[in-house]
Amino acid sequence: MRNDVIARLAAANPVSGPVPMREPVRVRRLAVAVAVAAAIGVPTVAFAGRLADVLGISNQGATVPVSSVLPGETKLDQALQEMQVGSTMQSLGTLNGVAFYAARNAAAGDFCLAIDHVDQTYYKGVFCDLNADNFPSADVKALTFPRTLEGVAADGVAKVAFVDANGTVLDATPVVGNLFESDVTVPQGTAAYLETFDAQGNVLSKRALPG
After folding, report:
1. Which of 23, 31, 86, 81 lies closest to 54 in space, CA to CA?
2. Contact between residue 192 and residue 164 where contact means Cβ atoms under 8 Å apart
3. Number of Cα atoms under 13 Å in the Cβ half of residue 197
4. How many angstroms separate the CA atoms of 194 and 189, rounded?
């Protein structure tokens, strides 16, 4: 059923299929849906009945109804129901004009994140990390949308960065309240790793990205 939902999400927006996220050794699966231009927005996944602290980060947010997250987007209702959508999720706040919402889905407790560029009509997105080593963990200290540093980081992470295969930093941005956001979009295939850093600049994690 999960594969059917991923395919449905991919077909409903301009992204060419689900985007896998990879660690240096094991393959990471990330179901991603992003809406831009005149495409439809993507409502987010929620998990009713779970307390905020199951997110595993200090920013527990405030519980809001799913209907208030990305209102008016009805075309993906069937897919979201198949992903066991609940009635609420956690509003984690707004950073640089981007509103962040998170929850763990009912299917397997996967971490799901939704964003809404509140000043832009169409740029919205949602993803779920479908891996057993679910965020946050020792190896997975940040989750981000592909090509743009927009996501959530574990406690203790002060900065995140996209790095190319030669170790050159393509983009970096600070973490505020477990959230990070950059308006830089790196070219497709140039970011080889997602790195996280502590307040002293030490590397906490380095996760390989798809080429």
Report:
1. 86
2. yes
3. 16
4. 13
Q: Which residue has the tokens 């203790």?
A: 156
Comparing CA positions, the residue from 60, 131, 156 lying closest to residue 102 is 60
Express each pLDDT in 113-150 by its tens digit.
888 887 766 677 777 787 776 789 888 999 998 899 99
Per-residue pLDDT tens over the stretch 152-198? 999 999 999 999 999 999 999 999 999 999 999 999 999 999 999 99
- Indicate yes or no: pTM above 0.70: yes
Which amino acid, 35? A
Contact 115, 150 (CB under 8 A): yes
HSE, side-chain direction, 13 A CA sphere, residue 187? 2
Distances, alpha carbon 70 to alpha carbons 76, 104, 123, 145, in Å: 12, 17, 11, 17
Q: How many residues does the chain have?
A: 211
- Counted domains in the chain: 1
